[in-house]
Design goal:
The protein is α/β, with parallel strands linked by helices. The protein is built from 18 helices and 17 strands.
Length: 442
Amino acid sequence: MRLSERPTLLIGAALACPAGFDGVPAPGAVLASVEGGRLRILASGEVGEVERHPAARDARRVDLPGHAILPGLVNAHSHLDLTHAGARPFDRAGGFRGWLEMVLHVRVREADAVRASVRDGVARSMLGGVVAVGDIAGVERMEPTEELRSSDLIGDSFHEFFGVGERQATTAARVGATLEAHAGEAAGVRLGLSPHAPYTVGLRLYDHAQREAERRNVPVATHLAEGAEEREFVATGRGLFRELLERLGVWDDTALDDVGGGRSPIAHLESALLRRPMLLAHVNDCPDADIERLALARASVAYCARCSDYFLRHEEFGAHRYLEMLAAGVNVCLGTDSVINLPPEEAERLSTLDDARFLFARDGADPRLLLRMATTHGARALGLEEGLFTLAPGEAAGLVAVDVEGCAGRTAAERVMRSGAPARLLAVGKPGRARFVGMALR
C-alpha cells in the first residue's frame, strides 16, 4: 500500500460538513492528499478558491456531479459479530423474550465464523460510508477486536462481559487479565470494556470496570435503559431477566443486594456513571431526573433510532428524548445496533446516515444537527478527535459522497437527508492504510 498519493481535487454539487459550509456556493470542492500513510485535507470550500491552492495545480481532478461531499461517518454502537444473522423481523407476540432466544440460537461461536461475521460487518459499514465504530466485541473474546484492527476502520472495540451476584468476582479477575494482555490502542482501535447491561452485570462489577478503565485509560460502554423489562428487573428484581438468569444457571440470591429498590436503570447506575464518562447505548427510558443525571455524569448516548423503532420502544416510553438530552448538554450520537434490527432493504449497509434520515423523516430534526450526531458527536463519544470528521484542513478519517441530484433543500445537509442514496466512500484515513477509493479513483 502506498504511503503517499498525489493530491486529488474532488468537485461536488455541494459540501455538507458538521462544522459549517452552509454558506459555500454550490458547487464545492475538497483538495485532499495521502501523505505518510495519512489522509489530509489541504483545502475545502468554493471551487475557485480551492483551485488556487498551490497543490491543486498538479492534482488529479475528480468531478462528482450531483453529489454532496461530506466527512466519513461514525457508528457509535454496533454488533459486527452478529452480521451473519441478517435482518430479521420482530415478532410482537414473542416480544423481547423471543428475540433474545433467537439471538442465542443463531449466534456463531466458532472463531473463524466470528471473524467472518465481523469482516462482513466491516464491509457493510464501509458500504454505508462509516469509517469509525464503537463495536461491542462479543462475550470475552478477542477475534472481533483483532479483525477490527486489521480492517480500514478506526474506533473502539468493547470487550463485553456478564456477572451478577457471586459471579462478579470471577468475572472481574478475567476482565483484569484481558486488560493486562491487550489494553491500549493498536492500528487505530482501542480495546474498551462493556459491562453488558444492568440486568446482567452487578453494581460491584460496574464499579470495577470503571476503576480499571480509569487506571488504564480505556473507554467503557454499556446498554442502559433500553426497555420495560430492564426497568422491571432493576426496580423489583423480578420479571423476564430474572427468569432468564435463573434458566441459564447464573442467578443467585445475592444479586438481590443490587436490585429491587424501585430505582430507574439510570439512577441504579448513578455511582458508576459519575466516576468517569461512559458511552450508553439506547437510553429509551429517560425521565427528566435521569436527563439531569446523564448531563452531570458527562455521559454520551448512542441513540439507535431504527433499533428503538424496531422494538416498539415508543409504545413503552413515548418518543425518545434525544432532543431534550442534547438541550441539557448530553452528547447524543447515532448507532445502528446490529443488522438484525434493520429494515431488509437497508441491511446491505450499516450506516448511521440511514438513522439520521429516519429521524429527519419522522421528527423533522435539523439536518445539520443530524449530521453532527453521525460524525463529530460520535467521535467525541469514542474518544476520537472531532476534527477528523469535518471538512476543515488537516488530518481526516474519511471522505464520502452522496448523490443528491433532484433533492431540494436550504442546506447541503438537508439535501443529503432527503436523498435515499447511500453514502459512498471516497477515501479512508486510517493511519497506515489511508487511500482514495471508489469514485475518487475515476
